[in-house]
Specification:
heterotrimer, A mainly alpha (302), B alpha/beta (356), C mainly alpha (257), A: mainly alpha, globular, C: MetI-like fold, 11 helices
């Protein structure tokens, strides 16, 4: 009898969220995959779907959208550039975020919460504001622009435009994603036992050696978690290239947005969204396999 | 507890805001005079809620994407034709429209909507090139031709300082006019030629930009822009107000210029049709058309209001050109051409052409 | 003595990291008080951009929309997320756990685009309601995770004890379980509220007529370039976030763990 109650309780608890998320997450995703195989409608993307409802006997699925996407050079260019920007962003976040996380983890307990809060505050303010900050700083008339252009002018180069460039895109991506790197790194570094480091120092290791041989490998799970949290949102970001980039710094997200909200080719947009998802999954899988092979995770979990 | 109060208050505010009837307008950015909003809200006892778009294609995409809920949409010529063909528009009840006689007869009964079944002319906006006078004087270039944005001999001097619109129709029209073709051509050979031209030139362009190009002009880092008259009107005012050292010039092109004829239409599923007619009637009043023309610098088809304008504005060649023979309006593409041009446009915009 | 663990180089790197995080925000705030239309040099102190801001009807409406959407969608996600979190902890429901975990990892763009297609297909009018549905859907996961984390530290035997003493499952849930996990629920709710109020990408795709939220309004302002009004809005939002984060960290410190 007890088991029956338990069963029904399980149903009562889990059914509402399951239904809600199935309707608002699973079904939409399936629809999107389905749309990728439809033909673009004569008046925007909605036509094939209506056609399908009106004519249930004839299902005209097509692979043309995939063909168009794969046979075009620009899509590969966008994919490679998105990967490139996201990897650079992840690496930069790691370089800037690691000492930051380390500093928080190693500081006195009473300061730790405040420092952590200081990282979280910019993360909780809308990311558009954070992009805007760089639009001011890198703007053609800003002090930074003047100084840089003055310096490279002395060196004999043409003045550069800091804003509306790939440089600006990467800086903004790093800036808006940095907290995602710091938080998991901190969570990991905080757990480290300092005695191990001290022991290694006593045994004659230099600071650098003990960092490379002990702290780094131990923090690998944090590095991987942080990298995933930075990498995934960066790759689909269309706002940053749109606001601070130029023709040569567009990313795959821009294509998706353009297909849905400008040229009305939903099938091509869906194909691109699927390619983007596969890219994310592929990279995550590669990283997971590498991590497992290196054995770092098991070592760190101890 | 305090926070809970704040939440409850915000919820109440939210509900309160919902309680006032709304008229939902979908309109291009900066395309309505503030005084008109006040006037309209007073008359209809409702709230005017504006949603903005930057590009007619963006508007079409949103409306096609089941964008029900709008009461009035501002649609450019080809958008009216496409929307009516899609069956997204209501036929206007002429009895409910007051003041249509104010509209100049030459703007009535247009090609894209015979008999004005669906649309009422709102305003029109010429598309031309605006440029930095000092730099062009120094370079000795006169931008009275579309060649300056397509021809390598000009592009080499202007590299990285040109912007063109991010909407396919305008860029294709400019290329087609430069090639001596009909700007509305649906001939695949013409379109291919235009596309090749754009492809080659786009490496020299700084950005596809319909939203903020005029700021670049005013700052001085952009020297030549495909521009709307209303943006330039505002920019010239800003330049004057801020005593900007930059001289912005305007020139029409000898090959011809596009005129975006914008209209008001009521979508089929508009929730508040009564307000929609109220709004159209408000716009048709000469005082509101006058406000539109003098505050935004758009060209108005309202002949009564036109006479109220200052002679200076009336005689501005790039707002009310005296010779209309080289001015074209967009006509709708057939679905096939639209898909083709959209695919070309996707490739043009997404590809990085770097020229050294 | 403990501070000696921090080497000089680490201190310098860390502090420059903080500077990198804060200087841009400080620039935004400072220039909101600058008496010049262009954000170039310091001209003089003024509050006029705030005056412009508080008389901008469209912007105020957008803020009201944002608050309302965030409130309702965090409410929905708190209810459903709590159920999900409890059931994730107590039972093995593979379908539910993947439905909770995948949306967190999925690119937001994918969620936004697929929801847009979905709403159009079922002929659902895009607007406030569609945004609320979309937001509550992706916020459920965060609430569920917060609740589950809280339950990890809980002694399950008190639930059994309550049941053995004759309490109905319903009573056990509301009188025993809910008070125990309440900090987790609040933390999840706050998280959902901020996620919803800050969200841009999903809102961008699911918004319709008359449902402009604050991030959408800021976006359309940003597209037209740098103006001091944006600095003023941003400053208000930064201050609001500062207050909310501080309150949240006081109420439920485990949110930040």
């Amino acid at each position: 009898m007890n088991k029956n109650i338990k069963l029904s309780e399980k149903k009562v608890l889990s059914t509402p969220p399951i239904i809600y998320l199935t309707i608002l997450f699973l079904i939409p995703t399936i629809i999107m995959v389905f749309v990728a195989f439809r033909e673009p409608g004569s008046y925007g993307g909605v036509a094939p779907l209506i056609e399908h409802i009106g004519n249930t006997n004839k299902i005209n699925l097509t692979l043309d959208n995939f063909k168009f996407a794969f046979s075009n050079y620009f899509l590969w260019q966008l994919c490679i550039r998105s990967l490139y920007f996201s990897v650079i962003t992840t690496v930069c976040c790691l370089i800037i975020g690691y000492p930051l996380a380390m500093l928080i983890a190693k500081s006195l307990k009473k300061y730790r919460d405040i420092l952590l809060l200081l990282v979280i505050i910019p993360f909780w303010s809308c990311f558009l504001i954070r992009i805007y900050a760089w639009m001011i700083i890198l703007g053609p008339q800003s002090g930074v622009s003047h100084i840089i252009n003055y310096v490279i002018g002395i060196m004999g180069f043409q003045p550069v435009n800091l804003l509306y460039s790939s440089f600006a895109v990467v800086i903004c991506l790093v800036y808006i994603n940095l907290p995602f790197m710091v938080l998991p790194l901190y969570a990991n570094l905080e757990k480290h036992n300092d005695d191990v480091i001290e022991a290694s120092r006593d045994l004659g290791a230099t600071r650098l050696q003990s960092f490379l041989k002990i702290t780094m490998p131990l923090s690998l799970p944090g590095i991987l978690a942080g990298s995933a949290l930075v990498f995934i949102p960066s790759i689909g970001m269309f706002v940053v290239p749109e606001l601070v980039g130029n023709n040569c710094s567009l990313m795959i997200g821009n294509l998706i947005k353009q297909q849905f909200l400008q040229t009305m080719n939903w099938p091509l947009g869906s194909v691109t969204a699927i390619i983007m998802t596969l890219l994310v999954l592929g990279i995550s899988a590669i990283v997971a396999i590498l991590a497992r092979r290196s054995g770092a995770l098991q070592y760190a979990n101890k | 507890m305090k926070k809970f109060c704040v939440f409850t208050i915000s919820l109440c505010l939210f509900k309160l805001a919902m309680a006032i009837p709304e008229m939902n307008l979908f309109i291009a950015v900066n395309y309505l005079a503030d005084s008109t909003i006040v006037d309209f809200e007073k008359n209809c006892q409702c709230r005017l809620s504006q949603t903005f778009f930057n590009d007619p294609n963006e508007m079409l995409a949103k409306v096609v994407a089941g964008g029900s809920g709008y009461d009035v949409i501002e649609a450019t010529s080809y958008a009216v034709e496409e929307l009516s063909k899609m069956g997204k528009l209501q036929k206007l009840d002429k009895n409910k429209i007051k003041g249509i006689n104010n509209i100049d007869a030459k703007f009535m009964n247009p090609m894209y909507d015979r008999g004005n079944q669906y649309s009422v002319p709102y305003a029109y906006t010429p598309v031309f090139l605006a440029y930095n006078k000092d730099i062009f004087n120094k370079l000795g270039i006169v931008p009275n031709t579309w060649a300056v944005i397509f021809e390598p001999k000009y592009l080499k001097k202007l590299k990285g300082h040109i912007t063109v619109f991010s909407s396919s129709r305008n860029v294709f029209a400019a290329a087609l006019m430069y090639l001596g073709k009909n700007p509305n051509s649906t001939n695949i050979k013409d379109l291919d030629e235009a596309r090749n031209l754009i492809d080659k030139a786009s490496g020299y362009w700084a950005k596809f930009d319909t939203d903020s190009y005029y700021r670049g002009l005013l700052r001085g880092d952009i020297w030549l822009s495909m521009s709307y008259s209303i943006d330039i009107y505002k920019t010239l005012q800003d330049a004057k107000a801020s005593h900007s050292p930059i001289n912005i010039g305007v020139m029409m092109q000898k090959e011809g210029n596009m005129f975006e004829m914008d209209n008001l239409v009521i979508p089929k599923n508009a929730p508040n049709v009564r307000y929609a007619y109220d709004f159209i009637n408000t716009i048709l009043q000469p005082k509101n058309a006058y406000a539109l023309a003098s505050s935004t610098g758009s060209s108005i088809p309202n002949k009564t209001a036109f006479l109220l304008l200052t002679p200076e504005l009336r005689n501005t060649e790039w707002i009310y050109p005296s010779d209309m023979s080289k001015n074209y309006t967009f006509t709708a593409y057939d679905p096939k051409t639209r898909i083709l041009v959209n695919e070309m446009w996707t490739e043009i915009q997404m590809q990085c052409h770097q020229v050294n | 003595m403990q501070t000696s663990k921090i080497s000089k180089s680490m201190l310098i790197c860390g502090i420059s990291g903080f500077l990198f995080l804060y200087i841009p925000l400080i620039v935004v705030v400072l220039f909101s008080f600058n008496d010049s239309r262009v954000n170039v040099g310091w001209v003089g102190f003024t509050l006029k951009w705030y005056k412009v801001l508080f008389t901008d009807k469209e912007l105020i409406q957008a803020a009201v929309n944002s608050l309302g959407i965030a409130f309702i969608s965090s409410l929905i996600s708190v209810v459903l997320g709590t159920l999900a979190g409890v059931s994730l902890h107590k039972y093995k429901v593979p379908l539910l756990s993947s439905l909770i975990m995948v949306p967190v990892a999925a690119p937001e763009l994918l969620v936004g685009v697929s929801l847009l297609l979905f709403f159009i297909l079922i002929n659902f009018t895009l607007g406030l309601a569609s945004i609320v549905l979309a937001h509550s859907a992706f916020c459920i996961s965060f609430v569920a995770i917060a609740v589950r984390t809280r339950m990890h530290g809980m002694d399950d035997s008190i639930l059994d004890a309550a049941r053995d003493l004759g309490a109905s499952p319903f009573k056990t849930f509301f009188l025993i379980l809910l008070p125990t996990i309440f900090p987790g629920v609040v933390a999840g709710g706050l998280m959902a509220f901020t996620l919803s109020i800050d969200d841009f990408i999903i809102t961008f795709f699911t918004a319709g007529p008359g449902s402009t939220t604050l991030p959408l309004a800021i976006y359309s302002m940003l597209k037209m370039g740098v103006t001091p009004e944006i600095n003023a809005v941003s400053t208000v939002i930064i201050v609001f976030t500062l207050a909310l984060t501080t309150i949240a960290s006081k109420i439920s410190p485990q949110l930040f763990k």
